[in-house]
Amino acid sequence: MSAFSHGAGGSGFIADLAASVGRGEVGLRSLATAAGTVGEAPAGFVRWLAETACDADSVRGIVARSYWHPNGFAKLVLHTSIDPEFKIRMHVWPASEAPRRGETNPHSHRWEFASTLIAGQGILMAEYLEVTEGGEPFTRHLYGTNPADPALLVADGATRLVDATAPGLSRGGVYACGTDIVHTAEPLGERLTATVVVQGPHRTSTTTVFRPPGETGDQPNRPLSAEDFRQLVSAVVTEVRECSSRC
């Protein structure tokens, strides 16, 4: 697994990442390779991120497709590519003393992805299995059934979940996730936490979200402003560079 060239600017970073993802069919292995390359040498990503935040047109595009998750972290879609088909996302949990800052409802995804931690004390990825007996009760919901309202959750019956595995993600490590995985993500500690996610193409039209019985009402995403984005980028760049100097 080769690292990105340290001298590469914005276009060089994207070209190197695209080469890691590969041409043609994008699979979980190539996504993990690309994420691992970022994790091994985050300086190239940080340089590209800082350059991107200085380009007004790029910032407008990123803000339009990004948002604040109801649980308080930012989902930033930084780059999209057609050939090969992939996206670069960054998830940022600002420093906070609030508990349960992660994605607390078990859920799956319509795409494969691989993520790497570039800032923070770590993330706990708890994975679950759906069963008919035992475990904890949940209501299954389908996400993505209504093209007019893609975020709408449609109840799909009662079910039960049991804990399967709890893989941890530490700085520089890689977590690869297929569409069949149901999981939650919880950042550890109170420091700013940031992951870079390399996302593959959509594999399914819908996915599942599991919520405790009786939990009603959707939790809408909140818009993310250009100022929010620039502040988040500044905080991430500072955290990564400070870590590089002290770690």
Describe the SSE topology.
Blueprint: H1 10-21, H2 28-40, H3 42-53, H4 56-64, E1 67-68, E2 74-81, E3 86-93, E4 103-107, E5 111-119, E6 123-131, E7 136-143, E8 153-163, E9 168-169, E10 174-177, E11 182-187, E12 193-202, E13 207-211, E14 222-223, H5 226-246
Antiparallel strand pairs: 1-2, 1-14, 2-3, 3-12, 4-11, 5-10, 5-12, 6-8, 6-9, 6-11, 7-8, 7-13
Helix pairs in contact: 1-2, 2-3, 3-5
Description:
- The protein has 247 residues and is an alpha+beta fold.
- It starts with 9 loop residues before the first helix and ends with a helix.
- Strands 10-5-12-3-2-1-14 form a seven-stranded antiparallel β-sheet.
- Helices cover 27% and strands 36% of the residues.
- Residues 1-8 have low confidence and may be disordered.
- α2 crosses α3 and α3 packs antiparallel against α5 (226-246).
Characteristic terms for this protein:
7-stranded antiparallel β-sheet, alpha+beta, disordered N terminus, 247 residues
Concise structural overview:
The protein has helices at residues 10-21, 28-40, 42-53, 56-64, 226-246, and strands at 67-68, 74-81, 86-93, 103-107, 111-119, 123-131, 136-143, 153-163, 168-169, 174-177, 182-187, 193-202, 207-211, 222-223. By secondary structure, it is of the alpha+beta class. The protein is globular, with a radius of gyration of 18 Å.
